Amino acid sequence: MNIKVGWCVAIAALFFCAASTQAKTYVVGFSQSDTAESDWRKANTESFRDAAKALDINLVFRDAGGNTDVQRKQVQELIDLKVDAIALAANDVKGWDEVLLKAKEAKIPVVLADRTIELLPENMNKALYVAWIGSDFRYEGRAAAAWLAQETGGICNIVEITGPPDSAPAIERAKGFREVIALFPAMKIIASKPGNWREEQSKEVMKEFLNDEGSNIRAVFDHNDNMAFGAVDAIEERKDLGLKPGSDILVIGVDAVHHGFELLMQKKLNALVECNPLQGPIVLKVVEEILSGRKVPPVIYMEESVFTQLNAAAAFPSRKY
Predict the structure, then answer these.
(1) Nearest alpha carbon to residue 41 among 276, 227, 221
(2) Both 257 and 292 in a single domain?
(3) Does any domain span residue 308?
(4) Do 273 and 300 touch, CB atoms closer than 8 A?
(5) How far, rounded to the nearest angstrom, does the alpha carbon of residue 5 sit from its chain's CA centroid?
(6) Same domain, 108 and 142
(7) Residue 211 has pLDDT above 90, yes or no
(8) Do the beta carbons of residue 279 and residue 44 sit within 8 Å?
(9) What are the tens digits of pLDDT across the range 14-35?
């Protein structure tokens, strides 16, 4: 059973408005993948900190800085600290079996936040985590491709700047995007390379694409907003090509953070597929429910939308990240 979009907003509002009724102050470990990677991740971290204060939870925060080996060690540290529960935003999809088995042995429930993981076949039925709360990454890729197909009439040469190859959002967004463009024979990905969620790295990738393909590029699909910002900078710096982001080259991002909206309104970006980072209140309330002995849905999706140059100005004043 899934809690689909729409429910999450009501749930989050209820959690923040209602006083906590727990008998003790729970100690919850939050293992973040890399707060510094993007504006999205910063908002995600702050949502956990704010929710912990609102729910009177002692949040033990660990940040892996984008290093999966470090993150596994940090999760083990949380187990050794005997926290009541762990929220895990996994840096990569694989390699979590051993430490999650140790968490289960210690009777510490784990909730996955944002990122999904892949367990070994022999561990898939061992309930190594209780629930996953996050975005439908494959839908995000499909939504980006559907907008692009509509905008271009299904005729488009595309370059793609992806997240880290082993991260769940990059894997699923790429799959979803390709599922849709496969329906349009004249939509082709002519180049694809990781930008690893980073603005400067994405800028360098886009420079390579422009050197290799130039005006052959009609659109760039960036797997997050910060990489879209880098792509815009790279296009604008290549004045010799005479190409403008948002018109000559369509630019799509995923996140829908404040600066992304600013660039939409400046018509330098064309579309943002929302990936809602404000997961903290839902994740931590789910943790409370688990620790109180109540059942929770195994999958909870965040509420999300698609924004374009047409609706950005109207939506911008109500944005929280």
Answers:
(1) 276
(2) no
(3) no
(4) no
(5) 16
(6) no
(7) yes
(8) yes
(9) 444 444 455 689 999 999 999 9
Same domain? 110 vs 147: no
Query: Domain of 54?
Result: 2-134+277-303
What region does 153 belong to: left with phi over 0, alpha with psi -120 to 50, or beta? Answer: left
Asked whether residue 32 is domain-assigned, the answer is yes
Give the pLDDT score at 321: 92
| Contact present, 220 and 189 (Cβ < 8 Å) | no
Report the number of distinct structural domains present in the chain. 2
Q: Which residues are within 8 A (CB) of 196 and not within 5 positions of it... i.e. 6 or more apart?
A: 37, 163, 164
> What b/e readout covers 195-213, taking b as 16+ CB neighbours within 10 angstroms?
bbbbbebbbebbbebbeee
Say whether both 260 and 193 belong to one domain: yes
Write down the pTM of the prediction: 0.87
Dihedral sign computed on CA atoms, order 276, 278, 282, 287:
positive
CATH number where 232 lies: 3.40.50.2300
Chain centre distance of CA 252:
15
Nearest to 224 by CA among 269, 161, 281: 161
Q: Give dist(CA 177, CA 193) in Å, integer.
A: 15
Examine the pLDDT at 248 and tell me if it is beyond 80: yes
Angle ∠(148,316,7) on CA atoms, nearest 5:
80
